[in-house]
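In response to reviewer comment 3 from the previous cycle, which asked for concrete evidence that the modeling workflow produces usable outputs, we include below a single protein chain processed end to end. The sequence was submitted unchanged, and the resulting structure tokens are shown without manual editing.
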Amino acid sequence: MSSGASTLTAAWVSLIETALTATSTKCYTHTPQDTSGTYVVLSLSNLPDDTKTFRRVELTIDIDIYSDYKGTKEVTDMGELIYDAAHRVAFTVTGYSLSHPQFQSDRYFDVPSEGSRGVLTFTQLVRPE
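The workflow returned the following structure tokens.
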């Protein structure tokens, strides 16, 4: 699934950056050293979820939102934009059958000495065709 994973990762990055166009927020899969300001980090992890009749993977998509601002308003607003863009969207990756992303949770934190952070989690089933 590695080429499928990179294609799906690129699709998620594009979706997030499009959703946050008005905020000019950058989405990374690996955060560059000394990154500051407001940015988003995307991470995908997978867990085999095979059945007797076919192979598939359950993909967990974590979207971390970081902000230097105090309070959670900025990260909450960005989380809502990402949710609206990602919830039940249809992704296509050649050679794979994908479920619509299923929203699992969101959490928002105010870290007094560091700013604020939000985390959205989606899951998605991926099966080779």
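The longest strand covers residues 115-128. We consider this sufficient to address the reviewer's concern, and the full set will be provided in the supplementary archive.
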